[in-house]
């Protein structure tokens, strides 16, 4: 598994397994299978309501904790400074883990500026190895950078070939985040059939003896993105890992990057109602 180096010097596997929209039962069924197939990086969140199941499945898999890279995320209700530390502890308790490799602020609303200090303290105490931001527009990342003692090591946003985020990445690089790792969510377009049917992906799949999904994932890797496609299908799980034995040429990368940049699937400009709901994450089966 190819890895990238985070600003804290630790390795992050470039290809992982995401568990968004998976019920606890699905996590129990699919995650051990994914780990057995070779995934060593898991992306979950408080808001997925499956941290308990993720922790249980990791233990059931028999995998050594140190061999895995586990990410979880806090929702805005956890950002106030006094709340953030206890909620990081609660997340670790649900996972049944002493630490997570990466903790993200999931959405750019609420008290993220004061909460960042609690995230830094969690790094100091070893509960969290790296911290980062998800779905933060440039101006809100700047607010964090103004107070940060530890800069965000990871920026997670939606990235797909129709929304390659070159402008966003360049803007953050200019603002001092040149060593941040970018993670792309919805890497396969969240099941959008039109994306995988793009002629360029069909043609390159034919050329390399791969599937269009594998070509899309290969494009992500060569863009430097970390991705964690979700799949409940064991064949897809294996297929998505099998992307390290071919390489797109510079001209082929340019062809993909010439696709019209029009289709991000969700970028909330204003807090959607669900972000403001105070959920009780302890209620997980
Ligand atoms: N930070 C955020 O706000 C945020 C938001 C959304 C997602 N995420 C993260 O990103 C992860 C991935 O997002 P996602 O699952 O929504 O989107 P995705 O990975 O782009 O797409 C998943 C869909 O693609 C299908 N698929 C997977 N492998 C395939 C293959 N080889 N060929 C054809 N179809 C394939 C899956 O179906 P099958 O089950 O049939 O394979 C599923 O329907 C999430 O699990 C989560 O960790 C983060």
Report on this structure.
- The protein has one domain: Alpha-Beta Barrel (TIM Barrel), CATH 3.20.20.100.
- The chain is built from twelve helices and ten strands.
- Strand 5, helix 3 and strand 6 form a beta-alpha-beta unit.
- The longest helix is centred in the N-terminal third of the chain and has 15 residues, at 81-95.
- Helix 1 (24-37) packs parallel to helix 2 (51-61) and helix 3 (81-95) packs across helix 4.
- With 285 residues, it is α/β, with parallel strands linked by helices.
- It has helices spanning 24-37, 51-61, 81-95, 112-124, 138-147, 166-174, 193-196, 199-208, 212-223, 234-241, 250-257, 273-276; strands at 3-5, 11-13, 17-18, 41-43, 69-74, 102-105, 131-134, 154-158, 181-185, 226-227.
- Strands 3-4-5-6-7-8-9-10 form an eight-stranded parallel beta sheet. The chain has a two-stranded antiparallel sheet with strand order 1-2.
- The model has no long low-confidence stretch (mean pLDDT 94).
- 41% of the residues lie in helices and 13% in strands.
- Bound molecules: NADP nicotinamide-adenine-dinucleotide phosphate (NAP).
- NADP nicotinamide-adenine-dinucleotide phosphate binds next to helix 10.
What's a concise summary of this model?
The chain is of the alpha/beta class.
Helix content percent band? 40-55%
Enumerate the distinct ligands. NADP nicotinamide-adenine-dinucleotide phosphate
**How many domain regions?**
1
Q: End-to-end distance, in Å? A: 32 Å
β-strand percent reads: 5-15%
Run of helices and strands: EEEHEHEHEHEHEHEHHHEHHH
Unreliable parts: none
| SS content category | alpha/beta
Strand order of the largest sheet: 3-4-5-6-7-8-9-10
What is the CATH third-level topology name? Answer: TIM Barrel
Number of helices: 12
Do you know the CATH architecture?
Answer: Alpha-Beta Barrel
Number of beta strands: 10
Judging from the principal axes of the Cα atoms, what is the shape?
globular
Tell me the CATH superfamily: NADP-dependent oxidoreductase domain
Mean pLDDT value: 94
CATH class: Alpha Beta
Radius of gyration (Å) = 18 Å
